[in-house]
Amino acid sequence: MNDNYLWDKSGKPDPEVERLENLLGTLREDLPAPAFEPPVHRFPLRWWQPLPRFAAIAATLLLVVSATLLLRFEQRAFWVVTRVEGAPRVASRPISDHGRLRLGEWLVTDSASRAVIDVGLIGEVEVKPDSRVQLLSANASDHRLALQQGAIFARIWAPPRLFSVQTPSANAIDMGCVYRLEVDAAGASLLHVETGLVTLERNGRESLVPAGAICLTRPGAGPGTPYYEDAPEKLKQTLAQLDSLLGAPQGNDQGSMNVRAGALDTVLAESRKRDALTLWHLLTRVAPEEKNRIYDRMAQLVPPPAGVTREGILSGNVAMRDAWADQLGIGSMTWWRFFWKKTVPLLGK
Amino acid sequence: MSVEITIDASAGIRQFRGVTLPAAPSSHADAALVLAARDGDRAAFGALYTRYSCMVHGLLLARVPAPEVADLVQDVFLQAMRRLHTLREPAAFGGWLAMIARNRATDFFRRSTDTEELPEEIPGRSGAASHRAEALAVLEVIKSLPEAYRETLILRLVEGLTGPEIAERTGLTAASVRVNLHRGMKQLRERLGVADTPPADATKDLQDGSTGHE
Questions:
Q1: What is residue A296's predicted lDDT score, i.e. its pLDDT?
Q2: CA distance A205 to A189
Q3: What's the pLDDT at A87?
Q4: Are A224 and A217 in contact (CB under 8 A)?
Q5: Is there a contact between A3 and B198 if contact means CB atoms under 8 Å apart?
Q6: Which domains does chain B have, with CATH numbers?
Q7: In chain B, positions 35-74, which contact chain A (CB-CB < 8 Å)?
Q8: Chain B partners within 8 Å of A36 (Cβ)
Q9: How confident is the model at residue A61 (pLDDT cuts 50, 70, 90)?
Q10: Residues B50, A7: C-beta atoms closer than 8 Å
């Protein structure tokens, strides 16, 4: 058998490839070109046509500014806790129907108890059984909890990045959404987003987890690579393997290189258009020679927009990566970055 | 606008505005044709059709039932013609057209009601009919492979493009196409029950990420 013949028809023909060529070549069709009509040129926009778009942008900005000003006045050193069932404890004391969780205090639930925390004016967090949660910050620009173990279900209706949860393996930063976050005894976390978008951050690594996606993170390895819950089973299993390989020092032996190459092959081959989310994250986590292959597959699934080049993506150009992420259907990264750089800091002033 | 194009039926477009073009498409030649087509030049669009119709045919054949492909190829090019003004980088025409073809295949299944695909011929009636039935059976096996392998194998085995031509037309790197061809063919052999003993040098090339023929 000659692989060169399969590649470019050079060298000694592989009999099986040749047989398939002859057989399948009968399915080729010489189709006549359709009658093409020249495209109709669009008239340039009238001066008044963009006005509704500007009005919508202005209204959104007004809403955001109003919300941020309102939140600046909401300064409390505690959050209200409501008992849902069992006997949740705050600072080692059981609470009746309501209690107060002050800065630094722990809320602990046993296997039979649950509680709900009012996150200031911006949302609520249900603390599931067998969980330990600590209030770390309750000021207008930083609503922050720590989840040491157990599970929470968060519903947040604030502007992005006002609420976050620290776990032993990563920080989950809310972008306005509903999600479930679990932490096991070893400190590994599992994030499952129902609506909106959550980012996981640790040590300069970032994972964007949109609605319908899951992200597994192990302590010391930084945020894992997110994937959609409905992704092919083979992709999910291989991604878990690839993630652990990417988290470990790269082995130089042929065996471990082959395992890693095989795992990447499977992830690329099994990816659907929606799974470009996973590939987008892998672009920053693999070796340079692997990035080219990920770029190719991702470009096949979601073509890069104008101005985004292979060279830019491979060299880690953030603006180009964000522009490509804008095509993934998870909202505009360009907008989020603008928002949290320009607007959120105003809350802390 | 005056345009000079020479089309050779076997090798595709050879001359455009007095410039000799390579037999295989290049992004520069595409850009010239796209710009001319965008200005309403039907011959330029016809030249793009000649170059890319087999790629579009292959991509559709990887996804939709064979009898539907011919009509959908025409649809894809008509859509491309209408939307050509939205293509910001004319040199990226191949990848852009491939995406239109993939989306059209997705739309096909979204719009069509559940119908059973009837065989085109009844096997056993004649030599040609049984040959085509066998080809369709092998095509179904290829369509059961992962998408990346499926597309590349169909472009190679059905449309007769070489690996470098597939890379150039679809915008993929040669290394990706070569890996997809190699692994896809390996899986195809397994599913067809054909022994597979790749030569040592080919395996080494793939592990090195080298294309060996660039």
A1: 93
A2: 15
A3: 93
A4: yes
A5: yes
A6: 1-111 (1.10.1740.10), 123-214 (1.10.10.10)
A7: 38, 40-42, 45-46, 49-50, 53-54, 57, 61, 66, 69-70, 73-74
A8: 42, 45-46, 49, 77-78, 81
A9: confident
A10: no
Q: How far apart are CA A59 and CA A321, in angstroms?
A: 28
* Cα–Cα distance measured from residue B90 to residue B23, given in angstroms and rounded to the nearest whole number: 19
Length of chain A (residues): 349
Spell out which residues of chain B touch residue A299, defining contact as CB-CB under 8 Å: 95, 171-172
Report the pLDDT averaged over residues A136-146: 87
Two tokens, residue B87 = 């293509």
CA atoms within 13 A on the CB side of B79: 18
Calpha distance B89→B99 (Å, rounded) = 14
A8-37 residues touching B, CB cutoff 8 A? 8-10, 16-17, 20-21, 23-29, 31, 33-34, 36-37
- What DSSP string runs through B23-71? SS--HHHHHHHHHHHHTT-HHHHHHHHHHHHHHHHHHHHTTS-HHHHHH
Q: How do the domains of chain A map onto residue ranges?
A: 232-330
Cβ–Cβ gap B49/A268 under 8 Å: no
A311 touches B at CB < 8 Å: no
> Helix, strand, or coil here: B89?
coil
The pair of structure tokens assigned to A299 is 């470009």
Task: Give the H/E segment covering residue A336.
Answer: helix A333-342
Per-position DSSP letters for A243-279, written without gaps between them: HHHHHSPPP-SHHHHHHHHHHHHHHHHH--GGGHHHH
Listed by number, the residues of chain B in 95-114 with a beta carbon closer than 8 Å to a beta carbon of chain A are 95-96, 98-99, 102
DSSP reduced 3-state for A291: helix
- The DSSP call for residue B87 is -
A222-260: pLDDT as tens digits:
899 999 999 999 999 999 989 888 866 666 667 777 888
- For chain B, 214 residues long, give each residue's pLDDT as a single digit of tens: 333 444 333 334 444 444 344 444 466 778 888 888 888 888 888 889 989 999 999 999 999 999 899 889 988 998 898 888 888 888 889 989 998 999 999 888 876 655 555 454 444 456 667 788 899 999 999 999 998 899 999 999 999 999 999 998 888 889 899 999 999 999 999 999 876 555 444 444 444 443 333 2
pLDDT of residue B197: 54
pLDDT at position A38, please? 60
Residue A289 contacts B, CB cutoff 8 Å: yes
* pTM metric for this prediction: 0.60
The residue in chain B having the minimum alpha-carbon distance to the alpha carbon of residue A17 is B157
